[in-house]
Automatic annotation (TrEMBL):
Keywords: Cell membrane, Membrane, Sugar transport, Transmembrane, Transmembrane helix, Transport. It comes from the Bacteria. PANTHER family: SUGAR EFFLUX TRANSPORTER A-RELATED. InterPro entries: MFS_trans_sf. One of its GO terms (cellular component) is plasma membrane. This is MFS transporter. It is a multi-pass membrane protein.
Length: 194
């Protein structure tokens, strides 16, 4: 695998994390301020969201342990995020938050574990020290977590709460394109021994 995959891969991590951080940071505020729900509604969303993230991460990790290619899992996460963002773009009600939002954004959040696992394989195959490439991935993730929440609250302030999900849905094709672009170099030998 050529080193030319490194920058697109980091950009994939960046865009995916921006998308997820936009949703995660905004949902509590949206439930209470946007939908005028009681603050306990945040606990309902967060509890079910955490459950979906844990279950999807466990299921996908088992598949990877059996040698499954992790890149389709990243595509599934991007698609799940896209569906949730679209659903809340057109029907921003608490029922959508507690159903499609919980499942879609929960599956979307599973991408980060898969991407970090893939990053370790990329480091091995490009002869980059694992700790060095891990530092790049962590710096990319941290930068994304500074940008995503600021972007979501900035959009909400200027254009309203529903616009945050519209913006997330508009960004999600970039995540899917980057996933498709970076996937082919990993397809012949997905994960495990290089």
């Amino acid at each position: 695998m050529a080193r030319s995959i490194l920058l697109p891969f980091l950009f994939l991590l960046f865009v995916g994390t921006v998308c997820n951080s936009m949703a995660v940071s905004f949902m509590g505020f949206f439930s209470v301020e946007g939908l005028q729900r009681e603050p306990w509604s945040i606990s309902v969303y967060t509890g079910f969201f955490a459950l979906v993230v844990i279950l999807s991460n466990r299921a996908l990790a088992k598949k990877m342990d059996r040698g499954a290619n992790p890149f389709p899992m990243v595509g599934l996460a991007a698609f799940g995020y896209s569906v949730a963002a679209f659903a809340l773009s057109v029907l921003p009600v608490f029922l959508t938050v507690a159903t499609v939002g919980v499942i879609g954004f929960g599956i979307g959040s599973s991408a980060m574990s898969r991407i970090f696992s893939i990053g370790g394989v990329i480091a091995e195959r490009t002869d980059i020290t694992h700790s060095t490439f891990n530092a790049y991935m962590r710096a990319t993730t941290s930068t994304s977590w500074m940008i995503g929440p600021a972007l979501s609250f900035g959009v909400a302030d200027q254009f309203g709460a529903q616009a945050v999900f519209q913006a997330g849905f508009a960004i999600s094709p970039v995540w899917l394109v980057l996933w498709w672009w970076t996937a082919p170099p990993m397809r012949p030998r997905c994960i495990g021994t290089p």
